[in-house]
Every structure is written in structure tokens, then in C-alpha cells.
What does this fold into?
Amino acid sequence: VQLQASGGGLVQPGGSLRLSCAASGFALGDYAVGWFRQAPGTEREGLSCISDHGLVTYYEPTVKGRFTISRDNAKNTVYLEMKNLKPDDTAVYYCSAEIHHVGCTIVQNGRPYWGQGTLVTVSS
It folds into this structure.
């Protein structure tokens, strides 16, 4: 039973990346999913989330308009499309599942599943 985040890498400012969060051993469609990141020397912060059915999404102001969260429950996967990346977006990105029957949150406590993180580096 695990979440696997992938898709990170080195990208130039203004570039794009798509992160994936794949679940194994459980049905990710039963959970809301959030994306978080932690830059060196900072606390982990919540960025975006999507409800279990995909109808509700939320974005923090720092990423709204640049990042898009989506999911394909048939593939047991949630995605984070990131565009117009900035050096300040450099961080380890994590996905996490939560039980939420209406929408989603980026509250970090009490989440049963966390992925291991994937590093995104935005640099020229």
C-alpha cells in the first residue's frame, strides 16, 4: 500500500512539468488527494487538492493559474500540471491522500497516505 510521486526534474524558468501520484494497493478514487512541497530550510506547505470524484479542486494563491490538479481514477493516479515555473517553485513535491466525503483540504495532519516525494528544480 503506497503512493508514488514521480515526474520531477530540472526545468528552466518559465518551463513546465507534470507530476504524477500513483497509488498501489488501494483505490485512490476513494480518497481526496493533495499536493504539497517543501523547499530547503522551510516547512512543508500545501499547494492544491482534488476531491475523490474530481469535481472539487483548490489552489493556494501562490500556484493558482499556473498549476492544474487532475485525476484519472481508472489509472489510480492524480496529476499536477505545472506551468510558468519559477525558481521559487524549487522543492520536493509530495502527494498525500485523505478521507474526505465532500471536497478536499490541504491540512497535513491525519492523512493516512503520503508519497515519498519528487524533486523539482527550476534553474537556468
Notes: The longest strand covers residues 17-24.
